[in-house]
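discrete fold record:
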Amino acid sequence: MTESEFEARLKELDRLINDPEVRMDPERVWSLLAEVSAGPSATPVLPAVTVPSAGLRLGH
């Protein structure tokens, strides 16, 4: 994520949490928190996914 993308996500997160005119979207808030928690140059963290038929585990 570039510095400008990081800043845009922080602004969106701030708006979602602090602007009383914006409807709270908890799923989006958690998604943004996961993206920005590692910083601007980090690779996004993928959720763990288990494929039942093959027993494979993808992501973290």
